[in-house]
Write a structure and sequence with these properties.
This protein has about 675 residues and is an alpha+beta fold. Helices cover about 30% and strands about 30% of the residues. It has 18 helices and 38 strands. Strand 16 and strand 17 form a beta hairpin. The N and C termini lie far apart (about 95 Å). The N terminus is likely disordered. The protein binds ligand MV4. The site of ligand MV4 has 17 residues, from strand 9, strand 10 and strand 14.
Length: about 675
């Protein structure tokens, strides 16, 4: 048999250190392994058990949890790469990915940096200079002033010539810091002072630029790729207008309502932008479009260039059928671009939702803790890029993104329908998540129409974060399932320990015999609200109704002692109202009471040293949007009280220790 040459055997990069964590580290490891490379992870103290560490062939500690002391320390990462004999380093996104000094340090250590040359990173780092460079390369830039002169009178004159309203932006950095809108000439001086102060504080450089203000901006970006042989291609555009406070939420490719001529115009402009800085590798050229009259070639301007692979790259991969991480490795190895421009075709539509551990109802505050449940639907046209797994932890040290849910279909409408359904079947428990918010956004009329601008979410925050109404027919189906399980438990309990039956959440006299003419009231919590379900026997089947709604078929998922009933993309959480207190009291044994899940202490009704009697309310916890009462299991004295109202507690943490009262010896 003839020897078959493995294409990978010829690939010169045999090993890669991934200088990142979470979702992107896992994403890079997946492709690196497929290319036959040895994968080397680094991790901070907080990430010892993280998914990227498990997925990599090798993993090395790089220091304490704060990124400043681990993932951002260039020397530690280079030393680890040398010790592990890594051929190259992939920086992912964020962290060191756009630090020219890091790319230089890699080169100095004889390690390939999977990214652009330091000179290109630097050229795009200063927004004012990048804008000047782009203007020279005939890339459309916003009217205004982006030169060196910083005299306030001169800048005011430039603002006047540009025409109000204008924006004052920091020349040294992006992200909206040091940005001030000015509507009238008399407000200019004060706004300039404030913008300079903010720019100095954020970037150590007070210089600003003046730009015409675009009222209804859409964020459209073009994926570009360049190799070391002078070839540059684009992979079409993405629309990332669905943002909140400069944080992207949903991205899609291609941009909705993009006319062919505008697409030609901006993709060509993006290639020119890359050429102007001798770009190599993966890059994204951001444009700002005035969306007030649809997308037009004369109303779209260069904003900045990101010199890295972006979070939202999967939507581009799906509509072009590419693996962009593979492209990055090939280019880093000195190979030519895998495809010529004419070979890169756009087909179908892709949408990405960023699933964050955050609390939409409380101003999108990050929400940390153990992921007691994490479930994503699978199936055709659904891709999940996750950085954590069920049982894993979301810590307060890093970006709280849990996963990216990406859907793909032939048309935009189908891709959004698929996203809606996929979000409806996504379960995150432990930390709060933005899944419901994403679901509402996915189905909002403006999103479906493709007219969302960068201010849309902020303007419609209340409607998008309003808790949905409970689905009582789904709740009834969950109650049926709970009751069948309880019945079985009770039969077993009766067999073993008849006395335990009296602890039943419903009256022991009624037993578990629902066969009588009457229905039985059962107190349940539906999305945290206490309601009385009616339970009755119908032939062989146990039936329930909640608020007059009979059960309807739905999918029911168990999450601890909670059932999540899923119907029409809506999730309804159901549990027995009384069982929690009964179960909790026993949780720790020996009078120790532990938190049943990650949550928050709402109130504490006892103090240390206080005498308590069996059944007395001790505290109330809030977890999974529900209140859980903790009652004393026995008489005794509060020997230890480890928490106070308002505290976050993690699953299993001891909250209270009740000891039997000591009888004083005489
Ligand atoms: C603008 C603009 C309107 N007009 N420039 C915000 C961050 C920085 N990268 C550029 N940004 C903007 N520049 C002009 N002349 C509106 C924004 C803007 C924005 C841009 C892209 C994505 C989201 C945004 C959210 C708010 C404001």
């Amino acid at each position: 048999m003839a020897f078959q040459m493995n294409a990978n055997a010829a690939f010169p990069l045999k090993s890669v250190l991934i200088a990142n964590r979470g979702e992107i580290a896992c994403r890079v490891i997946r492709t690196a392994k497929a290319m036959g490379m040895r994968t080397i992870a680094v991790y901070s103290d907080a990430d010892r058990n993280a998914l990227h560490v498990k997925l990599a062939d090798e993993a090395y500690p790089i220091g304490p949890a704060p990124a400043r002391e681990s993932y951002l320390v260039i020397d530690k990462i280079i030393a680890t790469a040398k010790a592990a004999k890594a051929d190259c380093i992939h920086p992912g996104y964020g962290f060191l990915s756009e630090r020219a000094e890091f790319a230089e340090a890699c080169a100095a250590a004889g390690i390939f940096f999977v990214g652009p040359p330091p000179s290109a990173i630097r050229a795009m780092g200063l927004k004012g200079e990048a804008k000047a460079l782009m203007a020279k390369a005939n890339v459309p830039v916003l009217p205004g002033y982006h030169g060196d002169i910083q005299d306030p009178k001169f800048l005011k004159q430039k603002a006047y010539e540009t025409g109000y309203p204008i924006l004052i932006k920091a020349a040294a950095g992006g992200g909206g810091k040091g940005m001030r809108r000015v509507d009238k000439q008399i407000d200019f001086d004060q706004a300039l002072e404030a913008a300079k102060r903010e720019a100095e504080a954020a970037f150590g450089n007070p210089d600003v630029l003046i730009e015409k203000y675009v009222a209804s901006p859409r964020h459209i970006e073009v994926q570009v790729f360049a190799d070391t042989h002078g070839n540059i291609v684009h992979l079409f555009e993405r629309d990332c207008s669905a943002q909140r406070r400069h944080q992207k939420v949903i991205e899609e490719a291609p941009a909705p309502g993009m006319p062919d001529d505008v697409r030609k115009h901006i993709t060509q402009a993006a290639i020119e932008a890359a050429r102007a800085v001798n770009y190599v590798g993966a890059g994204t050229v951001e444009f700002l479009a005035d969306g007030s009259q649809g997308l037009r070639a004369d109303a779209i301007w260069f904003l900045e260039m990101n010199t890295r692979l972006q979070v939202e790259h999967p939507v581009t991969e799906l509509v072009t059928g590419t693996d962009l991480v593979q492209w990055q490795f090939k280019i880093a190895a000195g190979e030519k671009l895998p495809l010529a421009q004419e070979q890169i075709r756009l087909h179908g539509h892709a949408v990405e939702s960023r699933i964050y551990a955050e609390d939409a109802a409380r101003g999108f505050l990050p929400s940390t803790g153990r992921l007691t449940a994490l479930r994503f639907p699978g199936g055709n046209g659904i891709r999940v890029d996750s950085g954590v797994e069920q049982g894993g932890e979301v810590t307060p040290f890093y970006d709280p993104m849990i996963a990216k849910l990406i859907t793909f279909a032939a048309t935009r409408e189908q891709a959004f329908d698929r996203m809606s359904e996929a979000l409806g079947g996504t379960i995150v428990s432990g930390p709060r998540s933005n899944v419901e918010f994403l679901h509402a956004l996915t189905n909002s009329p403006e999103m479906r129409a493709g007219t969302v601008d960068t201010g849309y979410i902020e303007r419609n925050l209340e409607a998008l974060t309003k808790p949905g109404e409970a689905d009582f027919a789904a709740a009834a189906a969950a109650v049926e399932k709970l009751m069948v399980a309880e019945q079985a438990k009770q039969r077993e309990a009766l067999r073993l320990l008849p006395a335990a039956v009296r602890r039943s959440p419903w009256s022991a006299e009624d037993g578990y015999d629902f066969s009588g003419a009457r229905d039985i009231p059962v107190a349940v919590l539906v999305n945290g609200e206490r309601v009385t379900a009616r339970v009755f026997q119908r032939g062989d089947a146990l039936k329930a109704s909640v608020k007059g709604a009979a059960s309807e078929p739905c999918e029911i998922v168990e999450v601890g002692d909670l059932l999540v009933a899923i119907r029409n993309g809506r999730q309804t959480k159901v549990k027995l109202a009384e069982s929690s207190a009964l179960d909790l009291g026993r949780a720790g044994g020996n009078g120790a009471i532990a938190a049943p899940m990650h949550g928050k202490v709402l109130s504490v009704s006892i103090a240390k040293g206080e005498k308590v009697v069996k059944g007395q309310r001790l505290m109330v916890l809030e977890a999974m949007k529900m209140e859980h009462a903790l009652d004393a299991e026995t008489d005794g004295v509060v020997a230890e009280l480890s928490v106070a109202a308002g505290d976050q507690v993690s699953e299993g943490a001891q909250l209270i220790l009740i000891e039997a009262e000591k009888v004083k010896a005489k």
